[in-house]
Amino acid sequence: MNSLKELGEFGLIDVLKQDTINDHSSVVVGIGDDAAVLLPTPKQLQLLTTDMLVESVHFDLTTTTPWQLGYKAIAVNLSDIAAMGGAPRHAVVSVALPHSTPPDLVVNLYKGMKEICHEFCVNIVGGDTVSSPHGLVINVAVTGEVEPANLVRRSGAQPGDVVVVTGNLGSSAAGLELLTAGQWEDYDFAWPLVTAHLTPRPQVKLGQLVAAAGATSMDDISDGIASEANEIASASQVGIRLYAGQIPLAAELKEAAAKLGKTPLDYALYGGEDFQLVFTMEPGKYAALLAANPELPVTKVGEVVDAGEGVTLVDQAGQVQTLKARGYNHFRQED
Ligand SMILES: Nc1ncnc2c1ncn2[C@@H]1O[C@H](COP(=O)(O)OP(=O)(O)OP(=O)(O)O)[C@@H](O)[C@H]1O
Ligand SMILES: Cc1ncc(C[n+]2csc(CCOP(=O)(O)O)c2C)c(N)n1
Ligand SMILES: [Mg+2]
Ligand SMILES: [Mg+2]
Ligand SMILES: [Mg+2]
């Protein structure tokens, strides 16, 4: 397998299609026909989402292995299914490959995808393979299922609800900066941050759990909590008040931020790509959720308030400032 030219489009697909089905019971036809044929679970709502990763915009092949890229391409999509309270089921994967791409790179890309698909019982049931004149592009679309009663949208937050996040925030953005700066291997604190950036774990189990526990709105944190809080506030027609001192930060992020000359909060609020979840819930239900699951990796970071208050951040000194949606934006560099 020396080059894509020798292998050809169809030779490559033949290699890639091995070990792509993890739940045979829901796939009638997988890779190999004009369309996949799937058996949905009766009475479940179908979810469908897609996210694309573009070389130099979302990843740099000098700091990301093909395996890690494959893992992340699926993870970012599973994260959107998690944010609806659903279980992921099937994926289609499209790749645009420069002519010079070594076939091994594509095989390793698929190994990373197959690993996370196996972990979350997702089937790769199709895709598309094309050539690209400039850089590698990978687009994934994923289906999921959710019981109608457990569906969580961005639009259900109510004044009085608590605002809660899973995991820690800001690690991924700091990891990206360490990767870009190079020589991150010299620092003990770098590994968990770099890992958070390269191979984020989608919070599928937690998403389903908090959905069943009565979350009123939910979003995954792809562009930064400042951006997602504004999205929930606008979809729900409410205000949101976040407390800077309550945002969960990894100990390693604090060390890295000191080294990189920024505050950890900058990464946490605006960094993006954490792929944690932010959700809102009536306080009594949140207390019951914590009582039943004392070890749950969740942190209350704020409250839902009336729309008139807008989206604000209360700093450690009690000062209130407007929290702008200053997360990652592909076309705009916000202030
Ligand atoms: N080119 C497009 N055509 C149609 N719908 C789109 C397009 N781009 C985005 N959308 C839709 O707009 C909404 C917001 O998309 P967005 O990509 O911001 O959400 P997300 O996937 O949760 O975030 P991220 O891409 O940062 O992970 C979604 O409903 C998405 O399906
Ligand atoms: C090489 C390189 N440069 C910059 C970034 C940062 N970055 C790219 S997209 C994005 C937000 C989510 O994207 P989307 O809204 O498309 O899902 C972020 C924070 C990166 N990961 N790699
Ligand atoms: Mg998207
Ligand atoms: Mg999302
Ligand atoms: Mg997304």
Distance between the termini: 49 Å
Oligomer: single chain
Query: What is the helical fraction, as a range of percent?
Result: 25-40%
Structural category = alpha+beta
Largest sheet: 7 strands, mixed
CATH-derived topology of the largest domain: Phosphoribosyl-aminoimidazole Synthetase, Chain A, domain 2
Q: From the 3D coordinates, which CATH architecture of the largest domain would you assign? A: Alpha-Beta Complex
Shape: globular
Uncertain runs are none
**CATH C-level class of the largest domain:** Alpha Beta
Quick summary of this structure?
With 335 residues, the protein is α+β, with helices and mostly antiparallel strands. The protein is built from ten helices and 13 strands.
State the main characteristics.
335 residues, binds thiamin phosphate, 24% strand, 60s Ribosomal Protein L30, Chain: A, alpha+beta, binds magnesium ion, four-stranded mixed β-sheet, seven-stranded mixed β-sheet, Phosphoribosyl-aminoimidazole Synthetase, Chain A, domain 2, binds adenosine-5'-triphosphate
